[in-house]
Design a protein that fits this description.
The termini are far apart. The protein is mainly α. 72% of the residues lie in helices and 6% in strands. A three-stranded antiparallel beta sheet has the order 1-3-2, with helices on one face. A three-stranded mixed beta sheet has the order 6-7-8, covered by helices on one side.
């Protein structure tokens, strides 16, 4: 036990001694390491100082080089900017000189224009002074005439007094003469007058019988000749395939007693009929007839058929009138659709919008110068298909031409009221209902109101003119047409500065060529307006007339 304790104590002492020795050796090693570290640190610090000094010297040298290069570059940029400023100054100076020259030219032009306007003002002032002198002369003339009229009136008053006095003297003398004649004839004035009238009546009856007999004999001799003449004139006026009245229809009655029933008590029946149909009903002294007046032919037809049924039925009162008019309106609407469908089937046109089919049916009740619009449109469609085939167009284009020919006047039967021409309105309707662009252009351009962009448009325009201008198609005769064309050109030529005037497109367009030296652009605008207004006031014409004023200045020079 003691041995073990001794061993343990020995081990502990040995361990302590070993620990102490080791710690001392570690301390010496650490001290050496610290000293070595300090020595190396001093060496590194010296090297760092030398390196930093060297870097500072190099950086200083590089900075001096860069400063010198920057100063050189700055000098170069400065010289460049000065050169650019000089060039910019020279450019701006040349530009200024050019603008100055342009302004001088404009000033000269303005000076010339001002001189011209001064001359125009001087001419206008002279004209105004001449007009003032003319007005003063007329005023003096009127004053002289007024003085003469006053003198003449005084003379007439004196003569009237003399005539009145003479008349009184003659009346007194006439009374004395009548009394004397009554004493001589032993008849009163009334008895003498009756005898004279009886004798005149007998003589007049015999002479009248002789005149009647002479008229009858002459009528028998010339009846055949006059009848042939009337028939020829009628054929010439109504040679169109179908004609109707423009704004009135005549409804014939069996007797004049029906007029009272149609008018009704205090006019209630005729007022109800006018309110239901929108047609003016004229009941005058015309025997066994009344007149239906309206610009809408469909309304006139509804009123005519309604009156026909009411007269046949005999029951005419406001409630019955409304029932009959409503029923006839439905039947007319069905008839319109049926006519449109039958027309497109006969022409072989497929895929037409139902609204356009209905408009085609409405053409049946519309006329232009006596030519029925539906017949005219059918005729134009057939002509378009024939002309397109003769021109060698393909079958699709031929069908397109026929379709455009049928629809070219569709704008004339539009239900809405508008300021647009029928060609433009028809074009908008075709566009609204999905027609082909070729058909739309042909409808809008058949009076040259828009530009044509395909071969179908001129075909439709030509066939429309052929159908409307053929002999007997319309009531307007050739002499009146040529007279209207001549009046159009003469009206344009009456203005100062107009050199030529041409009526084109069957009188639908008036082209006026003016002299550029006498007419300015502003006056050309005013001239077209003045001519159009004068045409509206002084002339009668169908549709509308476009006035085009052309002012052209040509400058010609020769290089030799």
């Amino acid at each position: 036990m003691e041995i073990a304790i001794g061993l343990i104590i020995g081990l502990l002492i040995g361990g302590a001694v070993a620990y102490f020795a080791v710690s001392q050796s570690f301390k010496r090693a650490n001290q050496k390491a610290i000293e070595e570290g300090n020595r190396q640190a001093d060496l590194l610090i010296q090297e760092a100082r030398l390196s930093a000094k060297r870097i500072i010297d190099e950086a200083t040298l590089e900075a001096e080089k860069r400063i010198s290069r920057a100063e050189a570059e700055n000098e170069r940029i400065k010289n460049k900017k000065i050169q650019e400023a000089k060039e910019r100054y020279a450019q701006m100076r040349s530009q200024f000189e050019a603008e100055k020259a342009q302004h001088l030219v404009k000033l000269k032009e303005l000076e010339v224009e001002v001189v011209g306007k001064q001359k125009d003002l001087q001419v206008q002032q002279e004209q105004f002074q001449a007009q003032v002198r003319e007005v003063n002369a007329r005023k003096a003339e009127l004053e002289n005439r007024e003085a003469e009229l006053n003198l003449l009136r005084d003379n007439l008053e004196k003569q009237l007094k003399i005539v009145q006095k003479k008349r009184e003297e003659l009346d007194a003398a006439n009374e004395e003469r009548i009394k004397m004649l009554e004493k001589i004839a032993q008849l009163t004035q009334q008895e003498a007058k009756e005898q004279l009238l009886e004798a005149v009546r007998a003589k007049s009856e015999s002479e009248a019988r002789a005149i009647v007999q002479e008229v009858i004999t002459e009528a028998r001799n010339t009846a055949n000749k006059e009848a042939k003449k009337i028939v020829i004139q009628t054929i010439q006026r109504t040679a169109a395939e179908f004609t109707i009245e423009n704004t009135v229809s005549v409804f014939n009655l069996e007797n004049d007693d029906m007029k009272g029933q149609i008018i009704g008590r205090e006019g209630r029946n005729i007022r109800a009929l006018e309110a239901a149909t929108g047609v003016e009903i004229i009941v005058d002294d015309t025997p066994e007839a009344i007149v239906l007046s309206s610009f809408d032919p469909i309304r006139r037809e509804i009123a005519r058929l309604s009156l026909q049924r009411l007269v046949a039925d005999g029951r005419i009162h406001p409630q019955r009138i409304e029932e009959v008019v409503a029923k006839v309106s439905r039947q007319i609407e069905e008839q319109i659709v049926e006519i449109g469908e039958r027309t497109v089937i006969e022409l072989g046109i497929h895929g037409l919008n139902p609204a356009l089919v209905r408009m085609v049916g409405r053409m049946r009740f519309r006329s232009s110068y006596g030519q029925n619009l539906l017949k005219h449109s059918i005729e134009t469609a057939n002509l378009c298909s024939i002309m397109a085939a003769e021109l060698g167009l393909n079958p699709k284009q031929v069908k397109m031409a026929k379709r455009a020919g049928l629809l070219h006047d569709i704008g004339k039967v539009a239900e809405e009221e508008t300021e647009l021409s029928h060609a433009i309105l028809g074009m908008k309707m075709c566009e609204q209902y999905g027609e082909h662009p070729v058909v739309i252009n042909a409808v809008g351009a058949h009076h040259d109101e828009i530009e044509m962009d395909n071969i179908i448009s001129p075909i439709v325009q030509a066939c429309d003119a052929i159908s409307g201008a053929r002999p007997g198609a319309r009531r307007e005769i050739l002499e009146n047409y040529l007279k209207r064309i001549g009046e159009l050109e003469e009206l344009a030529m009456s203005y100062e500065g107009v050199s030529k005037a041409f009526a084109m497109q069957a009188g639908r367009e008036l082209r006026v060529i003016v002299e550029a030296e006498k007419v300015t652009d502003q006056y050309a605008d005013d001239l077209s307006f003045l001519i159009s207004k004068r045409i509206e006031e002084e002339m009668q014409y169908p549709g509308q007339i476009r006035v085009t004023v052309i002012r052209e200045k040509r400058s010609v020079a020769y290089a030799r």
